[in-house]
């Protein structure tokens, strides 16, 4: 069973419409969509925005629905200066950029009393995502690297530069590292797939509203292609 999460309606609606044998189950006012996609059994959910919502949905998918691998799909703001709207980012690892215990001499993103603060995506799922992306997009529009997450919509150049310099990130968003954190604790394989909706700069709000549908469609197409290979 494969779990698929998107934070927003726009990020999951096209996938939902493609599910065969669709069933719905409501838990904590969250609707989970069960069925098959490209012949694979899946559970799809609109998880809501932010790290807590993402953590709750990830926990329910693993504990309640017994998914054995998990994919997060959606949009993000680019922090790599070379990245453009519509490009695809595949996670190899994730960090929580808003975790700040620097007062205790720790680095930004470092989580106290955990063996790691860098959550690595599953190598097999990364390779499947990369091969699937090459079927749909030009190689120059596909990036594999670190994604950072925090409970903030980044829309200023100074913050972008800090995220890139501090974490060497490809993009930033609001859920992926929380999903990765929970999957790490449950030892569940995962990968985060993001399509760039904006460049997290002064134009981010306008760009996001304009390009979110395009970016969501790119992510959806990649998920469908991945289902043929998992």
Describe it for me?
There is one protein chain. The protein has about 230 residues and is an alpha/beta fold. Strand 3 and strand 4 form a beta hairpin. It has a single domain, classed as Rossmann fold (3-Layer(aba) Sandwich), CATH 3.40.50. The longest helix is centred in the last third of the chain and has 24 residues, at about 205-225. The chain has helices at about 10-20, 50-65, 125-135, 155-165, 175-185, 205-225; strands spanning about 1-5, 20-25, 30-35, 40-45, 70-80, 90-95, 120, 140-150, 170-175, 190-200. It is built from 6 helices and 10 strands, in the order βαβββαβββαβαβαβα. Strands 5-9-8-6-10 form a 5-stranded mixed beta barrel, surrounded by 5 helices. The termini are close together. Helix content is about 35%, strand content about 30%.
Q: What order do the helices and strands come in, and which of them pair?
A:
Blueprint: E1 2-6, H1 9-18, E2 20-27, E3 30-37, E4 40-46, H2 51-63, E5 69-78, E6 88-96, E7 119-120, H3 123-136, E8 142-149, H4 157-167, E9 169-173, H5 176-186, E10 190-198, H6 204-227
Parallel strand pairs: 1-4, 1-5, 5-10, 6-8, 8-9
Antiparallel strand pairs: 2-3, 3-4, 5-9, 6-7, 6-10
Helix pairs in contact: 1-6, 2-5, 3-6
Domain Nucleoside phosphorylase: 2-226
InterPro entries: MTA_SAH_Nsdase, Nucleoside_phosphorylase_d, Nucleoside_phosphorylase_sf
Enzyme class: hydrolase
